Amino acid sequence: MKHGFLPVSREDMKKQNIDQLDFVYVIGDAYVDHPSFGPAIISRLLEARGYTDRRNAVRIHLAVGLPLKWVQAQRDTFRDYMMKERIVKVGYKDRTYEMEFTGCTVMPQCYSAVAENLKDFKGMNLLVDIGNGTMNLMYLNNGRPMESKSWTEKLGVYQCEKAILNKVRDNTGTELMHEVIENFLRTGETDIAQPYAGLMVEAAKEYAVQIFQKLRDYEYNEQKMRLYVMGGGARIVEAFGEYDMDRVTFDHDIRANAKGYEYYCYMILKHQQRKKAM
């Protein structure tokens, strides 16, 4: 795979000797050239797989996810949305990629992240997946999901970021840069001066208290079960929450859900191929 960032400005275009863009990809998020961000990685993935001719064609089956309790109601609508453009042509460097989307499998967040390792969950476990906008919860009984005990709450990392912004603004009358808060949320640390650092920590601790209070609302008791926390919010809960370290596991692999989607999608397609062969 070649190095160098994708162009995001006219200056970048000049450096890469690009006179005219073949396409402009508009998204609401910042451009991050990292494997956890789909829009940035898709062209690099094709390049790494050997599609290096000036014109390349590839067929893609999408494996995507929705918050745990939204899947049943929104699966069909979300699949239709993802499949709206069946054929997409993308220009990358001096090559053209023609992508044909042949299908889309929609799976639940949280459960998908541990699908390959269910046998490792003994006794009663509470899975908690803290994403950007939502927090998914599901109980496992000896590795088996309890569908009647699964929930989705709007208590994701964004709510923590918003709380930090408000606390700093209310106490100092100033704004923190988004990048400063983002780094803090990812690492649990910051090198900015007081009182800003203290206010950030205070807001993060309050957010962690909210998380554990919500878990208790859904019958969480650390003496009766184990807790498994994953997603982008796991770092904040680990750094600023109060819990029994011997009974809580933190999974910081932000690709865990994506790996689960891929695994489930592969198994589903494999099963379909076997049925056709019979």
What features would you highlight for this structure?
single chain, three-stranded mixed beta sheet, 8 strands
Can you walk me through this structure?
The chain is built from eight helices and eight strands. With 278 residues, the chain is α/β, with parallel strands linked by helices. Strands 6-5-4-7-8 form a five-stranded mixed beta sheet, covered by helices on one side. Helix 4 (157-172) crosses helix 6. The radius of gyration is 22 Å and the shape is flat.
Summarize the model shown.
With 278 residues, the chain is of the alpha/beta class.
Strand order of the largest sheet: 6-5-4-7-8
Radius of gyration, taken over Cα atoms and rounded to an integer in Å: 22 Å
Q: Which structural class best describes the helix and strand composition?
A: alpha/beta
Low-confidence regions: 27-36
- Strand tally is 8
In percent terms, what proportion of residues is strand? 15-25%
Instruction: Give the helices and strands as they follow along the chain.
Output: HHEHEEEEEHHHEHEH
Shape: flat
Distance between the termini: 40 Å
Average pLDDT taken over every residue: 85
Query: What's the oligomerization state?
Result: single chain
Helix content: 25-40%
State the major sheet: 5 strands, mixed
Number of helices: 8
